[in-house]
Amino acid sequence: MNPTRFVSADEAVSHIKSHSHVHLSSVASVPHILIQALCRRADAGDVTDLKFHHFHTEGPAPYSEPKYEGIFTEQGFFVGPNVRANVNAGYADYLPVHLGESQALYRSGVIKLGAALVQVSLPDANGYVSLGTSVDCSIAAIESAELRIAVVNPNVPFAHGDLIHISSFDYLVEDDTPLITKDFAVPTPTEEIIGRNCAELVEDGDCIQMGIGALPNALAAQLSGHKNLGLHTEMFADGLMRLIKAGVINGANKAIDKGCVVASFLLGSNELYSFINDNPGVLMKDIQYTNDPWIISRNPHMKAINSATEVDLTGQISADSIGTRIFSGTGGQLDFVRGATMSKGGKSITAFASRTLKGKNKIVAELNPGAGVVTPRADAHWIVTEYGAVDLYGRPLQERAKLLISIAHPDDREMLDRQAFERFGPHYHNFSI
To answer: Could you report the per-residue pLDDT of 226-273, keeping only the tens digit for each?
Structure first.
């Protein structure tokens, strides 16, 4: 490293021009030291009209706060808890995009980046650094941005996969702040049952994808008796790490990246971050690669396991919103749904509890007004709740309704059956599955 290229955070961000689009590396690896410096510029009246793009971020998100309205504008590709209230209050915004295509927004110039702000590991002997726990669309941002700033942090693991040379950056900033960690809630009894129902659809030798949270951890626990699983996913957490350490996930049957785990970003414990450090068995890759349906499909028996906020009786899956209220984002759900469907012997699985914590049914006659359809009904395959699993693929609407009602909460089935009759007419009750 050339020590003369290191500057303070304030000096680095002083070169970001007003009216710029700014990319942030995401999830556990947000460059908070640079965000804090930008806030100081904003407080001094020295910058205006910056638009921020990123996947979901952990930690403070001042770029979404009313205090900076007109100065900062949040336009993330995924809405996390730290910006959700401000997005739904109108102080911040959400940019819908399949995560696999997020990088194309930069590379195509649809979003012309003024600056890319990322966090990287210490360089290796050849000057290459890793983006650690969050490669996401940051490679594309670095390739495309007018200004490139990296926070070099020894706490960022040197993950194998897609690396970038330290010389790619215009300014470097030193920081040793630990990465943000997250402990996910212990699965509930309901989530454990759902995990078991999903695990019954996964066979030895399959390649899997799933997200992070209590339900994926519940599923991971139910897979401990499986053998020779592969993992090609956009993200994973501690539950899947434990399966890798136990040898359950070994990639032996994968057709591509054989013997390796492939992901684009991570969130979990320090143990997880240490696990990927200099581990050639874990490849952290550009989201363009991890989420490309054709690449996903090249691994046979791909099992993509995702969640939903609501599913209607025709199989439309909402996952980014609750009515008009944006809850998360499109994410990579459809990327993996289609990749798994194209895979030889693959299955797309959508798993969720039949009711919300407040007792509202999640299998519904119609989606809440304003709800976004993340997975169209034509792409819906296996649907799993604590009451069972049904396959909608190749099934007509009335049969789908019958199947979905059979795995709804028992106290909701009569209501849903009545609503299906009102929708489909008198022949509905004469139809059996």
So the answer is: 999 999 999 999 999 999 999 999 999 999 999 999 999 999 999 999
Which CATH fold topology does 3-174 show? Glutaconate Coenzyme A-transferase (3.40.1080)
Residues assigned a catalytic role? 234
Write down the architecture of domain 189-428 according to CATH: 3-Layer(aba) Sandwich (3.40)
| Contact assessment for residue 284 and residue 135, using Cβ atoms and an 8 Å cutoff | yes
Q: Distance of CA 205 to CAs 268, 328, 335, 346, Å?
A: 26, 32, 22, 12
Tokens standing for 218? 């519940």
Domains 3-174 and 189-428 share a fold: yes
Tokens linked to 80: 């996390």
Amino acid identity of residue 323, one-letter, is G
The pTM of the whole model exceeds 0.90? yes
Domain boundaries, the chain: 3-174, 189-428
